[in-house]
Design a protein that fits this description.
The chain is an alpha/beta fold. The chain has one domain: 3-Layer(aba) Sandwich (Rossmann fold), CATH 3.40.50.1820. It is built from 13 helices and nine strands. It has a nine-stranded mixed sheet with strand order 1-2-3-5-4-6-7-8-9, sandwiched between helices. α5 crosses α6.
């Protein structure tokens, strides 16, 4: 169990200032000017990954924030029936320290590139402590990160020593910081890619106390959970049957990465799997206003790492929950990393999600 972290939202955020910046996407010809506040720590004595970044469209109003401390989200007090913000949780198999909050920048570029009004007033991207993995480097990714073993390497990197539920703890601290800046229930879409989709659902569909984190507040309830190429049924990822013929060759790699992130006791993995969460408990959270009434799931049929049945398993589980609508996205194409590498499909998925909310009003 990770040690309890003291939360000092205002002081930590106020140490970071808004800056003029540019973001890019391979789908756009030119960089897009934005206002950014990068690497805002969300706990005291944070490691290098316990932070988040916030991006604003550059307008005459937001440009005036450049050089000023981060004290609030723009438009936090403005009444709106639709979410004003996107909060994103990146993937990376729970263990890749190179895939961080900046991976949302291609989507930021696509969202804020138009001369017309931006779809949201701000996009926030959460970093979190990642899990270790040992030598040799696994072949699961074409360009795997350098392995980390504190004993063999003779050094300690606290940013690479997370074991569940520390990933959830970090995400909840990040949401709490955003809450101190004006994030409120219903004001945002919470999206996640790959392992980040699992983490987004874990953070909202279960209370903090479920993970032994009862000292943390309930996060502001998102208007929608948006899962992209997500991992939702952990035990199924470690069996050939669960992966299916198309992805069965990844079984050993998944078993290793899940053991590093969730511990070697596979009997404990279902309790961490969104596809195994108790429908009655989620229904109660929806009634209490702690979980959203809409979940949108999208999965690329060309994903070389995650089988389609991960989305199907979660869809079947969520369909048993009264009061919850599950919608299927249709934007994701290409390889597993394409959504964050290109950004356009994350932006399109956000626009589709906002349209679903409009139609439901």
């Amino acid at each position: 169990m990770p040690a309890r972290a003291e939360f000092t939202a205002a002081g930590d955020a106020g140490q970071v200032r808004w800056q003029l910046a540019e973001v890019t996407s391979p789908k756009l010809d030119s960089p897009v000017p934005v206002i950014a506040a990068r690497d805002i720590p969300y706990i005291s004595h944070a490691n290098r990954l316990q932070n988040l970044s916030i991006y604003l469209p550059r307008t005459p109003e937001t440009a005036g924030l450049a050089g000023t401390p981060v004290t609030s989200l723009p438009g936090a007090d403005a009444p709106s029936r639709l979410p004003r913000y996107l909060v994103h949780v990146h993937g990376g198999a729970w263990r890749d320290p190179r895939l961080a909050s900046a991976s949302i920048e291609p989507a930021v570029a696509c969202a804020f590139s138009s001369e017309g009004p931006a779809p949201v007033a701000a996009i926030a991207s959460l970093n979190y402590t990642v899990s270790p993995f040992g030598y040799p480097a696994p072949p699961f990714m074409a360009d795997p990160p350098v392995p980390y073993d504190a004993i063999r390497d003779n050094h300690t990197d606290l940013a690479r020593e997370a074991v569940h539920p520390q990933h959830v703890s970090d995400a909840l601290h990040g949401l709490a910081l955003l809450g101190s800046l004006g994030l409120t229930s219903g004001s945002y879409v919470l999206s996640g890619h790959s392992a980040g989709a699992c983490l987004a659902l874990q953070s909202v569909l279960r209370p903090p106390g479920h993970y032994g984190l009862g000292y943390l507040p309930e996060p502001p309830c998102p208007a929608v959970l948006l899962g992209l190429n997500g991992l939702y049924d952990l035990p199924a990822l470690a069996t050939a049957d669960g992966l299916g013929a198309s992805h069965a060759h990844h079984r050993d790699d998944y078993e290793r990465l899940l053991s590093g992130a969730f511990g070697t006791d596979q009997d404990a993995w279902p309790a961490a799997s969104p596809a195994s969460f108790d429908p009655a408990d989620i229904a109660a959270r929806i009634r209490e206003g702690n979980a959203p009434r809409l979940v949108v799931l999208d999965q690329s049929t060309e994903d070389q790492l995650v089988p389609m049945n991960q989305k199907d398993r979660l869809t079947a589980a969520l369909a048993r929950i009264p009061g919850l609508r599950v919608a299927q996205g249709h934007r994701l194409t290409g390889r597993h990393a394409a959504p964050w590498e290109e950004g356009i499909t994350i932006c399109q998925s956000l626009l589709d999600t906002l349209q679903l909310l409009r139609e439901g009003q």
